[in-house]
Specification:
This protein is of the alpha+beta class. The protein folds into two domains: 185 residues, no CATH class; 84 residues, 2-Layer Sandwich (Alpha-Beta Plaits). The chain is built from twelve helices and four strands, in the order ααβααβαβαβαααααα. A four-stranded antiparallel beta sheet has the order 2-3-1-4. The longest helix has 43 residues. The protein is elongated. This is Cell division protein FtsX.
Length: 305
Amino acid sequence: MRAQFVLSEIGVGLRRNLTMTFAVIVSVALSLALFGGSLLMSDQVSTMKGYWYDKVNVSVFLCNKSDAESDPNCAKGAVTDDQKKQINTDLDKMGVVEKVTYESQDAAYKHYKEQFGDSPLASSLTPDQMQESYRIKLKDPQKYQVIATAFDGRDGVQSVQDQKGILDNLFGLLNGMNWAARAVMALMLVVALMLIVNTVRVSAFSRRRETGIMRLVGASGFYIQAPFIMEAAVAGLIGGTLACGFLLVARYFIIDHGLALSEKLNLINFIGWDAVLTKLPLILATSLLMPALAAFFALRKYLKV
């Protein structure tokens, strides 16, 4: 009987404040969709970091004849065979190095033609103008400075370049966008909480006669508050379900179909469905608990029971 009464009161409350209930559902749905999106964005950035940082190399570029005439780092002339052997030996001895690959001038010229063959500059280049280099794969990409310290400024070395620096700029931009999404999410959550509190206050005020009678006949405080708390929880749960739907639809149309980024951007290792599905229980739990707690504390302040 009591459960039936509570459920009937929930239905009455939702119908009486239909407009505000709808506003609560929409604001919860949008804020939690942004919440889930920011979590997925963090997973995507982490996945990309793990994928690309595992592939980045440190490049030690060696001086050629052209550099000897124009580059101060190569003032002592082009790299010699003895210098190349010594560099290779020193690299092999370094504990941070996983693999060393030598690229000759001919190989560098071939790779340049493959990548930039349509460039006007490509027709004027010759293999002897290209730089020999050692491409070094590190066991830990963060240890770039060890290579730079050991070889920067050495005779025969033109420069030491770390590809990770280029990726850091990209990931910095992605992280900035993620924090912007979190800021919007936080604002939407505040709006949702304010709407929930106001909805509960209006509902409690409109039923103050009923709650007064219940208090006179000895109903417990929790029994009086339960319908209001559950109204907010139901509205929040509906919003959370919509947020889950938004995330599933976004993943389907943006990555797999529609925009089909997984096909157009083959170089990006996108997160899978498992990453999305693991976030849905958290979103649903938040959508249920957040409105219920907001309603509970609002009732303690505005409903004298």
